[in-house]
Write a structure and sequence with these properties.
Elements (H helix, E strand, L loop, with lengths): L2 E5 L3 H12 L3 E5 L3 H20 L8 H6 L1 E4 L2 H5 L4 E4 L5 H14 L5 E4 L6 H6 L7 E6 L8 E6 L5 H13 L3 E6 L6 H17 L5 H12 L5 H8 L1 H15 L8 H8 L15
Parallel strand pairs: 1-2, 1-4, 2-3, 4-5, 5-6, 7-8
Antiparallel strand pairs: 6-7
Helix pairs in contact: 1-2, 8-10, 8-11
The chain binds 1,4-dihydronicotinamide adenine dinucleotide.
Amino acid sequence: MQRISVIGSGTMGSGIAHTFAQYGFDVALVDISAAALTKAQATIASNLDRQIKKEIIAETEREDILGRISTYTDVDKGVRAADLIVEAATENEQVKLSLFEQIDKRCPQHTILASNTSSISITKIAAATQRPEQVIGMHFMNPVPVMKLVEVIKGYSTSNDTTNKVTALAMQLGKVPVEVNDYPGFVANRILMPMINEAIYTLYEGVADVEAIDTVMKLGMAHPMGPLQLADFIGLDVCQAILQVLHGGFGNPKYAPCPLLVNMVIAGKLGKKSGQGFYTY
Ligand code: NAI
């Protein structure tokens, strides 16, 4: 696998494109928004500068890495030569189902279709295509160039061959793949999101303020950052979408998003990406 198409150039898509290009792959970065692509290119360039300062990459590599990423606003053009597609578009089931139906028709037969979804059923996404055995979850963590984990999610029909190829590829990127099965939230978000939601409830009920809640979890539980700051980094809209999938998938009211989270999303306070969430950026 040499040619990788990444669909969606937001928080995650830009990091995924950066990482593949850093490890020598040719990347087609696709987004329906030209502004998102421009922003992604600037983010990648500034994150490369940070890696140069930290001596993770050499300054001479910078232009080569950027040169390996081409951008497309036309999905059909962006996927037609791909060996692997990693979809990192908005966490919305309808968006993903129609994208997979479309890309399945436009890319070569051998192409593996991966989704970076945080919670949406891989089995359902696969069922929108004619190649369910070649559809898999490849769940990177934020920030992608830094975080080691890739949660590899096997849908009901995902073949062992597809799983083995994606696992090997994750290792080529210096990541540690962990194989899990396809149930709501998989492992990472099934455990993480109820904690974040509970932290938001703790704030909502006036038990403590933002600083206090995050400090308790940092100093008391040795978490590198508090749950409210982490929610800001993930994006509050993404957190809400994942909780809705857990709520719908398990039918248990304990997963329902806290009303404060819902209000903040409606008000456009989405966390770091919008400049304001539980903290100001
Ligand atoms: P984001 O909101 O930052 O970016 C999403 C991008 O997708 C936007 O630029 C949007 O224009 C684009 N997009 C929407 N529909 C499209 C379409 N039909 N074709 C092409 N581009 C389209 O979202 P983010 O945070 O990057 O999340 C992307 C995916 O990654 C979601 O599935 C999310 O659940 C998952 N994820 C997010 C993490 C996080 O920390 N934010 C962590 C791990 C996974």
